[in-house]
Amino acid sequence: MTKTSTCIYHFLVLSWYTFLNYYISQEGKDKVKPKIFANGARWKYLTLLNLLKSRTAGFGVYQPGSFRQLLQTIFYGVTCLDDVLKRIKGRKDIKFLTAFRDLLFATLAFPVSTFVFLAFWILFLYNRDLIYPKVLDTVIPAWLNHAMHTFIFPITLVEVILRPHSYPSKKTGLTLLAAANITYIIRILWLYFETGTWVYPVFAKLSLVGLAAFFSLGHIFIASIYLLGEKLNHWKWGDMRQPRKKRK
């Protein structure tokens, strides 16, 4: 039986991410920032496909922030549904939903959130103009920046500590993560060819070889985070890998 406190926590987190998605969508209606969410911009960024991405009117720069929030909203929506059904029907009747919840967390929610948190703040502290130009401070509230790039990590870490998650085999998990990463890179390149502007300023400073190296290192980094998540889960809860199906 899922603890009531756990259900309440998941509901509060889901409400938080739902609010962030709503707030970001309303930003596009602000007459002072008419182009911030132009060309489907809020969906460009790893930070907004985790909420929603955006172009700052008049400055030709993009604000990271939305894939992460959307991804987290979906994950916690599935988690809340899993909590409720377990309290109503019991564990045996919803094995598929629980397996999907765990797969979503293991292969996307944890690695993407941790990657965004680390990558954003490493680049920000090194040279903020590479990732989040100072001009964005005039259109993006400080609390929203932290909601998209800071709070996401401790919330995800609490989920690791709060309950166990069954991990797929390394081959399956890393393959799904690689597929998501490739899809995102294709999206970034497509947006560049469509608009002539990179979603992150750092890309504009790199050569073709530099971009290839950046994307390759980024994938190695996020794959390492996936393995770290598996280790943390094992350290806290023991071996929770999904059992392999026996061949007949």
From TrEMBL:
The keyword Cell division does not apply. It is a multi-pass membrane protein. GO terms for cellular component: endomembrane system; membrane. Its main location: membrane. It is found in: Endomembrane system. Keywords: Membrane, Signal, Transmembrane, Transmembrane helix. It comes from the Eukaryota. It catalyses: 12-hexadecanoyloxy-octadecanoate + H2O = 12-hydroxyoctadecanoate + hexadecanoate + H(+); 9-hexadecanoyloxy-octadecanoate + H2O = 9-hydroxy-octadecanoate + hexadecanoate + H(+); 13-(9Z-octadecenoyloxy)-octadecanoate + H2O = 13-hydroxy-octadecanoate + (9Z)-octadecenoate + H(+); 13-octadecanoyloxy-octadecanoate + H2O = 13-hydroxy-octadecanoate + octadecanoate + H(+). This is Androgen dependent TFPI regulating protein. The chain crosses the membrane at residues 103-123, 143-162, 174-193, 205-228. The gene is ADTRP. It holds the Pfam family Far-17a_AIG1. Belongs to the AIG1 family. Residues 1-20 form the signal peptide. InterPro entries: ADTRP_AIG1 (IPR006838). It comes from Theropithecus gelada.
